[in-house]
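Thread: sanity check for a docking pose with magnesium ion

Original post by kr_44:
Hi all, I'm comparing my docking run against an independent structure prediction. Below are the sequence and the ligand SMILES. Could someone generate the full complex and paste the structure tokens? I mainly care about where the ligand ends up relative to the chain.
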Amino acid sequence: MSHERSTLSQCISLAESQNFADKVIISELLDLRQSSWVDNETLRIGVTGPPGVGKSTFIEGLGISMAQLSQQKLAVLAIDPSSTSTKGSILGDKTRMAGLSQMENVYIRPNPNREQLGGLTLETATSLLLCEAAGYHTTYIESVGVGQSEIEIDMMTDIVILLIQPGSGDTLQGIKKGIMEVADIIVIHKLDGATELIGKEMLNQLKQLYPHTPVIGHSSHPIVNQHSLTQIQSTLSQLSADTKAKRIKQKTYLLNAELKSALLDHAQANDIYQLIGEMSNIKHPTEAYVKLRNALNNSKI
Ligand SMILES: Nc1nc2c(ncn2[C@@H]2O[C@H](COP(=O)(O)OP(=O)(O)OP(=O)(O)O)[C@@H](O)[C@H]2O)c(=O)[nH]1
Ligand SMILES: [Mg+2]
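Reply from moderator J.T.:
Ran it for you. Here is the predicted complex with magnesium ion included:
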């Protein structure tokens, strides 16, 4: 089992590489496993929310409960935003998910957040497919909701769970609208101790503001609230009944993003300025666009 997990880790490292030959290997591997973005019986859950809201601790509680209930394998791709400064991501996530990381049928991949805001990249989508190809039925993607990452988490997962922490200065006005709109489930987290009262107020406000989105209060620490956990699990199983339509849209989005990235890599490899002329001769950005399009029209791409 641990051998299998280390093979999966090696494959994910290859998928994260920018090397073309590595991409060819991964593409062939996924073909071999008949991987498909749309057609399979897996479940992809995005967990997002501001730094420190308790995403990893929440996944630990929910994941342990899911892994105990079924024989199905579960993977977590955690994007740790603090890792660039502390370089402590692996330690951080393994301690936050100490119980899960001990389980036989669980794979946890803590990923350092690279240059992209929120940490999600196209390679994250490929890593997710690799987990599924290795037999992991449910994959969690943990990502902090900053920058454009909320768009991306919605574009990679079947169900987005947004965690909000009461009384942290994350007042409702402070939470970006975009992320509220892509959330399939809103969880008021850390609904315990000193923040319980203010959290309940927030819960009522949100229920009125978003009447069509399930809003659930929950606490994962020091002990997991089993009552709200059950509510979250049953909401998840209702929402997971039909994922196909969303996946079809996602596939178009991801495919276009991959094409743009391939074109850019191709142009860079061929020295883009050889195609469009010296930068100093270009007077405005649209001119660069038009020149490149013309150059591509004349080539056989
Ligand atoms: N009171 C309380 N504390 C919690 C709860 N869940 C997590 N914490 C604490 O909040 C802190 C941050 O938890 P994490 O799970 O690391 O939060 P995170 O959102 O994954 O953090 P980043 O990955 O750094 O964005 C830790 O000290 C946890 O023990 C909860 O339900 N209640
Ligand atoms: Mg975390």
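The beta strands are 43-49, 73-80, 106-112, 136-144, 159-164, 185-188, 215-217. Hope that helps with the comparison, let us know if your pose agrees.
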